[in-house]
Amino acid sequence: MRESLVSLAAIIIISCASFINPATGQERVRIAWAGSTPSNTPTWVADQKGFLKRNGLNAELINISASTIVVQALLTGEVDMTIGTSATLVTSRLAGADTVVIFANVPHFVDHVVSAPNITSVEQLRGKIGGVNRLGTTSDLGLRIGLRRFGIDPEKDTQIIAAGENPQRLAALTKGIVQYTLISEPHVREAEKAGFRDLIDFGTLKIPFHWNCLVTTERVIKAKRPMVQKVVRAFSEAIHYIKTDKEGAKAVIGKNLRMTDPEGLERAYRAYNAAFPEIPKPHPDGVKTLLDDMAPKNPKAASADPKSFVDQSFVQELENAGFYKQLYKK
């Protein structure tokens, strides 16, 4: 009941926000996003460095607390697209929605498992309590999939609880409420300074999974294809900015995470700059990882075609036109 009220409140806020900006002659787009993590840097850069505006878009970016609520705003038509993940994409489409990924900001796992200092191996996570944002969100599903790669059954070998976003999860670890958690840079740096252990760097495993991506609906694509293409172009330019203006990108990360620690920002930039692809084409493998994980318990996931969750055409059109070669001068 409480989740439903929160979701309703979020949608009402978005509906009200849609009347704030006056018409400017530019095409209007509403984008919802969630998560205090550098994986959202392309979103921040596209907005705050003017790439959306330069592509003729009057964009409203709405921050909502969890990806599960963000996708509800998309399905009700209150926003045109979301910054989402394989998790919300797959669960919504399996439930009958027409959601589809069009752009891959981060095409694989990037977060870290940080643990209490006395936990020195993955095996020692058995019997321990782990913290994620909310059950069913990216951090939850990502942690469960990652643990299975190390032979840990998240349903039987450990307990996973909701502990909030990155800062709240770190606080739960500090208080002993959880013994390990999934967090991202630069919060990993904070955890190490506090004496906790960087136990697993999922980024090194290159597990295919759309950790951060642009998700829309087939309905929006049919009605507003030129607008969608403009957003894809703006986000492509934002990734180019990140890769070619290190200090500018770090400043954006610091501003949005309210962080000034130079080493933390350097580590965050290094980790995510490596993860952002020059050609951000979504791939069926980024969906297949989750479908395979769900298949034993979900017949719909077992029979689903990963290709149906992905629309590569927007990035492909830009690639065919030589846009990325020109952008990176190759």
Q: Summarize the biggest pleated sheet.
A: 5 strands, mixed
The stretches of 5 or more residues where confidence is low (pLDDT under 50) are 1-24
CATH-defined topology of the largest domain: D-Maltodextrin-Binding Protein, domain 2
Task: Classify the oligomer.
Answer: single chain
- Say which CATH homologous superfamily of the largest domain is assigned: Periplasmic binding protein-like II
Enumerate the strands of the largest sheet in spatial order, edge to edge or round the barrel. 2-1-3-10-4
Number of DSSP helices?
A: 15
CATH architectural arrangement of the largest domain? 3-Layer(aba) Sandwich
Q: What integer value in Å does the Rg equal?
A: 19 Å
Distance between the amino and carboxyl termini: 54 Å
What is the overall silhouette?
Answer: globular
User: pLDDT average, as an integer?
Assistant: 89
Indicate the proportion of strand residues: 15-25%
Which structural category do the helix and sheet elements fall into? Answer: alpha/beta
Strand/helix succession: HEHHEHEHEEEHEHEHEEHHHHHHH
CATH class of the largest domain reads Alpha Beta
Number of strands: 10
